[in-house]
Every structure is written in structure tokens, then in C-alpha cells.
Automatic annotation (TrEMBL):
It catalyses: Na(+)(in) + 2 H(+)(out) = Na(+)(out) + 2 H(+)(in). InterPro entries: Na/H_antiporter_dom_sf, NhaA. The chain crosses the membrane at residues 30-47, 74-94, 106-130, 142-164, 171-191, 197-214, 221-236, 242-260, 281-307, 313-337, 349-375, 387-406. It is a multi-pass membrane protein. Keywords: Antiport, Cell membrane, Ion transport, Membrane, Sodium, Sodium transport, Transmembrane, Transmembrane helix, Transport. Na(+)/H(+) antiporter that extrudes sodium in exchange for external protons. The gene is nhaA. It is found in: Cell inner membrane; Cell membrane. Its main location: membrane. This is Na(+)/H(+) antiporter NhaA. It comes from the Bacteria. Belongs to the NhaA Na(+)/H(+) (TC 2.A.33) antiporter family. It comes from Rhodococcus chondri. Gene3D superfamilies: Na+/H+ antiporter like domain. The keyword Cell membrane applies.
Length: 432
């Protein structure tokens, strides 16, 4: 008996338009990843100098109108405000993938979706097993090692994986986007304590008006931005983390061109238009600024680092990111192939999937966000979370770099074949 997946090939190159788009996205995220690393390093260095008090004072400096309950510390503005822009872009990207991208084909979508789910379940289980008997609210942080940082992971992939097949890069990008959607769902469901249904209901009004406007292809900033800000404010006041508003707003934006103005010369769809405008800000400003305010932790030298490793929460985070991610992503991908009777594309091996899965252990941005929510009011454990996330991320990044460098040399021939353009029409022959 055969299935709809009987002859499916996993991680095939895909279409040329999608490859071009993914390449452009990866280029922008690579720049953002470099800025993220610089911002995080600056914060970490500053927080471990004699002037660390100035850093922490800056993090806690409050701005905003108190009458609207928005007199918030700068660190909260970065987490609740700037990351909402990041998740808006995530919503746009995910919707575009499933409406107009190669992943509108269920058979192509199955692998990154199942891999993302596996890449969240396995690290969570690793964390829970390690902290099962810890007590003192340690299990609140079960979701910390489940997230993958797009910008950080893509930056490393771009530097050390220049000859890897495009399909592997697309796999990582799509997996990370789905991962972020699942992460924000986890935040909304499991890290919302005091839910105000009045504010939540009111948030639906500007959200619906925003959706109506974008469906009518209205691009006027003076209308869309106030509606988006009002949606964000009402969601923030409802008790749900404000980044959820970003994803919801992103999902309302139409991906396809309107029927009235369709055709090859009609220009990009509205989702692509917004993504083109906002991705540089998201990758170049929003995420690095958040990283600057989130990554600064006073380690306290070798003794302080050793003390952190005595906390099972930090150990659970490190093990979840380094071991749980690679086991979850690779394991579910392998089971998907077996269940669907599919095989990897020509030239690819499971070691390639495992090498990319190691990048999934780079859980910087969203992991730090979840850590702040999980242990709010516990400064010591919050510091341990940051050190655990940084340590796990660095270990995963180093292991991924080694594995990808080895596989990169092996894939040089495939790369040259995929990019061969004998007729010089700007489109590699493999996509024609």
C-alpha cells in the first residue's frame, strides 16, 4: 500500500523564485545576526566591569506615560515592544510560506513542521527530567530551551556553510520560523497569569479594522500604524504577552496580489511589501536592542560560573539546547522520512540534517524572553537562566560550526552544480 508521500523527496532544491527569496532573507538575517552578537557581547562585557551598576540602571530606567500603565523599564520596552515587530515579521514570513511559498505543498511542509515540533518537545523533556525533583518553581522554565534564534543561527550558517545546498538553508529558516510561532503560542498559553478578557475582547476591534484595511490593500501608514499600536496596547493590557499581537497582525496581511491588479507587473503582494520594509528594522534594530538589554548578566568570575552550574535549571537549559534540539529535530525528521516512505534528496545525508539541527540549539532571543517570564521576581535564577542560555548557545554554535565546516567541503560539488548557469540567463540550470 502506498501513501501520498510514497515518492516524496525530502529537502529537494524547490523552485527558483523561492530560492531567490530565501537567499535574500538569509542575507538580511545574517547582518542582523552579526549585530545581535555585537550587542550581546557589549552587554555581557559591560555587566562584568566595575561600571555594571550603570548598565543595570539603564535597563531599569523607566519611560512612557504612567496614566496608560506604560511607564515601563527600557528592558521591558525592548521585550514587549521591539520584539512585537520581530514577531510581526515572523507572522508575515510564516503566512507567505504556506500561502505562496514552496510549503503550500503539504508534502514539503511536513518535514520542517514536524522537525520544529520535535525540536521543541525533546528539549522540554530533557529540561523536565533534569529538574523533576528540584522544586522551588524550577519547572516553570520548561520552555526556555525550546526556541531557535533565526538571526544568530543564520549568521553562523552563512559564514561556515557557504557551499551547503539551498534546501538545507531553507529547511533551517522555515523550521526556525515555525519554531518561533510555536514559542509565541507557548508564551500566550503557559506564561499568561492574569488574563483580562475585556481588554482582550477590545483588542479584536483594532485588529479587525487593521485586517479589513490590509485586505483592501491600504498601505497608508497614518492609518495602519495607529491600529497596530492600539492592538498592541490592548493585548499588553490584557495580560497576554504583547508579542502575540505582532504575530496576529502579521497573519492578517494578504500574501497574494489582488485580482484587480494581478499579473506579473503588479508588484509584490502586501505581505512581501511590509516584510521588505520591516525586516531590516527587525533584524538590525529590534532584535539587537533586545539582546543588549537581555544578555547583560554579572557572572562573578569562575566561582560565579561554577555556582551557576550547580543550579539544575541552568544545566537543564544547556542540555536541552545542545542535546535535546539535535535529537528532537533529527529524530522527528528521520521518523517523518520513514513514516512517509520518503528519502533525502540526492547528495544529502542524515549527518547534514544533524549538522543543521545543531544550529537549532542556538536559542538566544526567544529563550531569554521566556526565561524572563518564567522566573519573573527571582533575580538570582533569572541570572542563571541567562548564563545557561548563553552557555548552551555557544556550545551548540561551536559544535554546529565544526559539523558544518566538515559537510561544507563535501558539498562543494553539489553547490557548483546547483549554481551552474550555462545559458547565462541568470537562472541556474537546475531550476529550469
Amino acid at each position: 500500500m502506498t501513501t501520498p508521500f510514497s515518492r516524496q523527496t525530502l529537502l529537494s532544491p524547490g523552485s527558483w523564485p523561492e530560492v531567490k527569496r530565501v537567499t535574500e532573507v538569509l542575507r538580511k538575517e545574517t547582518v542582523g545576526g552579526v549585530l545581535l552578537l555585537v550587542a550581546a557581547a557589549l552587554a555581557l562585557i559591560w555587566a562584568n566591569t566595575p561600571w555594571s551598576d550603570a548598565y543595570h540602571a539603564l535597563r531599569e530606567f523607566k519611560v512612557g506615560p504612567a496614566s496608560l500603565h506604560l511607564d515601563l523599564p527600557l528592558s521591558v520596552w525592548a521585550a514587549d515592544g521591539l520584539l512585537a515587530v520581530f514577531f510581526f515579521v515572523v507572522g508575515l514570513e510564516l503566512k507567505r510560506e504556506f500561502v505562496a511559498g514552496d510549503l503550500r505543498d503539504l508534502r514539503r511542509a511536513a518535514l520542517p513542521i514536524t522537525a520544529a515540533v520535535g525540536g521543541m518537545v525533546a528539549p522540554a523533556l530533557v529540561f523536565v527530567v533534569i529538574n523533576l525533583r528540584t522544586g522551588d518553581g524550577a519547572l516553570n522554565g520548561w520552555a526556555i530551551p525550546t526556541a531557535t534564534d533565526i538571526a544568530f543561527a543564520v549568521a553562523i550558517l552563512a559564514v561556515v556553510g557557504s557551499h551547503l545546498p539551498v534546501a538545507l538553508r531553507t529547511f533551517l529558516l522555515t523550521l526556525a520560523v515555525v519554531d518561533d510561532l510555536l514559542a509565541v503560542t507557548v508564551i500566550a498559553v503557559f506564561y499568561t497569569e492574569d488574563l483580562d478578557f475585556v481588554y482582550l475582547g477590545l483588542a479584536l476591534i483594532p485588529l479587525a479594522l487593521f485586517a479589513f484595511a490590509v485586505q483592501k490593500r491600504i498601505r497608508s501608514w497614518w492609518l495602519l500604524i495607529p491600529l497596530a499600536l492600539l492592538t498592541w496596547y490592548l493585548v499588553h493590557e490584557s495580560g497576554v504577552h504583547a508579542t502575540v499581537a505582532g504575530v496576529l497582525l502579521g497573519f492578517t496581511v494578504p500574501v497574494l496580489r489582488s485580482a484587480a491588479t494581478g499579473g506579473p507587473d503588479a508588484g509584490p503582494g502586501l505581505a512581501e511589501h511590509f516584510e521588505h520594509r520591516l525586516r531590516p528594522f527587525s533584524a538590525g534594530v529590534a532584535v539587537p536592542v533586545f539582546a543588549f538589554f537581555a544578555a547583560g548578566v554579572t557572572i562573578g568570575g569562575i566561582s560565579g560560573f561554577t555556582a551557576t552550574l550547580n543550579d539544575s535549571v541552568a544545566i537543564g537549559i544547556i542540555a536541552g539546547l545542545v542535546v535535546g534540539k539535535v535529537v528532537g529535530i533529527t529524530g522527528t525528521s528521520f521518523l517523518t522520512a520513514k513514516f512517509t516512505r520518503a528519502s533525502l534528496a540526492e547528495g544529502l545525508r542524515w549527518i547534514d540534517v544533524a549538522a543543521v539541527a545543531l544550529l537549532g540549539g542556538i536559542g538566544f532571543t526567544v529563550s531569554l524572553l521566556i526565561g524572563e517570564l518564567a522566573y519573573a521576581g527571582d533575580p538570582l535564577r533569572s541570572d542563571h537562566v541567562k548564563i545557561g542560555v548563553l552557555t548552551g548557545t555557544i556550545i551548540a554554535a561551536l559544535l554546529a560550526t565544526i559539523a558544518l565546516r566538515i559537510r561544507n567541503r563535501a558539498h562543494r560539488t553539489i553547490y557548483e552544480r546547483e549554481n551552474r548557469d550555462d545559458d547565462h540567463d541568470g537562472i541556474p540550470d537546475i531550476y529550469q
